[in-house]
């Protein structure tokens, strides 16, 4: 049987980024919080925290945190049904994995009113859309925005729409690398910008043009930095259309192959036993995505 006082101590340490702040939130001494985490580790037979700055959960610790979050969501539902149980506690915290491009574009306007109205705090884990689903599979998050369609056992998957990407470069870059126009051969020889080692969008784009194999590219694990590098002429890249309407209008970025956009479908995954709050958030996201994303 799990002792939830121990689990809540673990959650407080991770959410508050340290034992001292966790102690303040829980109304305990720092040593008492530490003892609860040690007792939890003794019960489960392995570490649940890496004692770093800030402390980081181990793989087992992440699974326990996901369980704690689901318990909190179910308790929130019960408090709504039985008002006498509502102790006026802190806002609910949702741990969600999301791709950086969604975070940089449509996510904030889609959830802002919901979070304010429902008193929800977000703990966002930024991953490439190709691998964010792994967080869900590992039980580390309550929900995920990713490119995987099929849900894991115990979860649901809802299609949101697609993000449209366009191959862009600065006018200066185009003048240097494509003096005779954009050709497949010239594109393959030109440096690109890639988000990270798990991002294969540019690779698949070149393959669709008949170019296979390695190509020169910068790695830039930041959506905003990606646009800056592309605008500065360091390389060409596939950029979300939503993110660069201003740069396109001002001529700071130019589309290389206007007839070949790339649509990346996105799906919202959430635990079936995540309670009414996750179901309401799902409805809000579906409605917002109809206005913000490309409908396939």
UniProtKB/TrEMBL annotation:
Pfam families: HTH_1, LysR_substrate. InterPro entries: ArgP, ArgP_gammaproteobact, LTTR, LysR_HTH_N, LysR_subst-bd, WH-like_DNA-bd_sf, WH_DNA-bd_sf. Residues 2-58 form the HTH lysR-type domain. Coiled coil: none annotated. It comes from the Bacteria. Keywords: DNA-binding, Transcription, Transcription regulation. Belongs to the LysR transcriptional regulatory family. Controls the transcription of genes involved in arginine and lysine metabolism. Homodimer. HAMAP family: HTH_type_ArgP (MF_00513). This is HTH-type transcriptional regulator ArgP. It comes from Microbulbifer halophilus.
């Amino acid at each position: 049987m799990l002792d939830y006082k121990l689990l809540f101590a673990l959650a407080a340490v991770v959410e508050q980024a340290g034992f001292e702040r966790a102690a303040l939130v829980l109304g305990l001494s720092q040593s008492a919080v530490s003892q609860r985490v040690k007792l939890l580790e003794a019960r489960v037979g392995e570490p649940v925290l890496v004692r770093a700055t800030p402390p980081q959960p181990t793989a087992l610790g992440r699974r326990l945190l996901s369980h704690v979050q689901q318990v909190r969501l179910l308790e929130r539902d019960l408090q709504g049904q039985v008002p006498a149980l509502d102790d006026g506690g802190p806002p609910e915290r949702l741990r969600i994995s999301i791709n950086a491009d969604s975070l940089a574009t449509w996510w904030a306007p889609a959830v802002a009113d919901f979070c304010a109205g429902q008193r929800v705090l977000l703990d966002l884990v930024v991953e490439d859309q190709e691998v964010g689903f792994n967080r869900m599979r590992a039980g580390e998050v309550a929900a995920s925005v990713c490119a995987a369609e099929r849900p894991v056992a115990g979860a649901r998957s809802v299609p949101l729409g697609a993000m449209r990407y366009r191959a862009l470069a600065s006018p200066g870059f185009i003048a240097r690398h494509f003096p005779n126009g954009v050709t497949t051969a010239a594109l393959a020889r030109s440096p690109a910008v890639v988000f990270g080692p798990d991002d294969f969008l540019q690779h698949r784009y070149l393959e669709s043009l008949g170019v296979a194999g390695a190509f020169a590219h910068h790695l830039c694990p930041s959506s905003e930095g990606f646009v800056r590098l592309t605008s500065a002429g360091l390389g060409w890249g596939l950029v979300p259309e939503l993110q660069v309407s201003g740069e396109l209008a001002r001529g700071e970025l130019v589309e290389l192959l206007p007839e070949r956009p790339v649509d990346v479908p996105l799906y919202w995954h959430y635990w079936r036993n995540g309670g009414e709050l996750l179901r309401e958030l799902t409805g809000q996201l579906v409605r917002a995505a109809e206005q913000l994303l490309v409908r396939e």
